[in-house]
Amino acid sequence: MLTVDYDLLDVRPGMRVLDLGCGEGRHAFEAYRRGASVLAVDWGQQEVATTAQWLGAITAAGEAPAGASAGVARGDLRCLPVPDASVDRVIASEVLEHIVDDRTALAEIARVLKPGGRVAVSVPRYGPERICWALSDGYHANEGGHIRIYRGDQLWERLAGAGLRPTDAHHAHALHAPYWWLKCAVGVDRDTALVRGYHRLLVWDLVRRPWLTRTAERLLDPLLGKSLVLYADKPPTAAGEAAAAHGALASA
């Protein structure tokens, strides 16, 4: 299940892509299959191990094109193990809401991006997330849980404050919002028949991708989408801007 739109992120073969807070690697896998050189980073040892295992399986199955590469690293998003201006694309999906010092994490993203590079950041959307918090403390008030709810304008300003230029935005996973409301209402740790039934529906949708649910989610995303996704570019250097302007004049 992808949250990021790879066409908006514009991942191309040969690019260096950083997947931050990779979890079990879902976004890293897609970038790898598209021919990128991917580094998946997470603080959790189990998450890093699982991602490495699945990346190896993709390699063994021949699902990644020639020239693509993938690796994993355990690291802190506030101090990334990556040189300055060394990556073309960064993905930070559903991770900033877990980090106390999110401004430092965004500054690190800006640091490692090449001039002209792009980042996709996703966080839980304000409205659906506020309902989850109202229904259950257990949903967020735990070790490693969500520590804030972002408003869209707040995240936009945070990206701009890190020196990045926000460009596009959309919402995703409308069908998942009612599922989490249901879990929060009955208790996040309770495995009721209704919760299991809704979960089976989501798994079926993920595997089968039927027209009906795909159309329904696309129509509902602007209203109920559980995730907010923002895209931002790192401005090119002054020298790069001058070179681009010179090239445009030369070809005119």
| Radius of gyration (Å) | 19 Å
Order of helices and strands: HEHEHEEHEHHEHHHEH
Q: Tell me the overall shape.
A: globular
| Backbone structural class | alpha/beta
Q: What's the helix count?
A: 10
- The largest sheet has its strands arranged as 3-2-1-4-5-7-6
Q: What is the terminal-to-terminal distance?
A: 44 Å
Strand content: 15-25%
Which whole number gives the mean pLDDT? 93
Number of strands: 7
Protein name: Methyltransferase
GO biological process, one term: methylation
Organism: Modestobacter caceresii
Keywords: Methyltransferase, Transferase
Question: What this model shows, in words?
Answer:
With 252 residues, the protein is α/β, with parallel strands linked by helices. α4 (102-112) links the parallel β4 (87-93) and β5 (113-124). α2 (26-33) runs parallel beside α3 (45-60) and α5 (126-135) runs parallel beside α7 (176-186). It has a seven-stranded mixed β-sheet with strand order 3-2-1-4-5-7-6, sandwiched between helices. 45% of the residues lie in helices and 20% in strands.
Secondary structure layout:
Elements: H1 6-9, E1 16-20, H2 26-33, E2 37-42, H3 45-60, E3 69-74, E4 87-93, H4 102-112, E5 113-124, H5 126-135, H6 152-161, E6 165-172, H7 176-186, H8 193-208, H9 211-224, E7 227-233, H10 238-251
Parallel strand pairs: 1-2, 1-4, 2-3, 4-5
Antiparallel strand pairs: 5-7, 6-7
Helix pairs in contact: 2-3, 5-7, 7-8
Domain Methyltransferase type: 18-120
Protein name: Methyltransferase
Keywords: Methyltransferase, Transferase
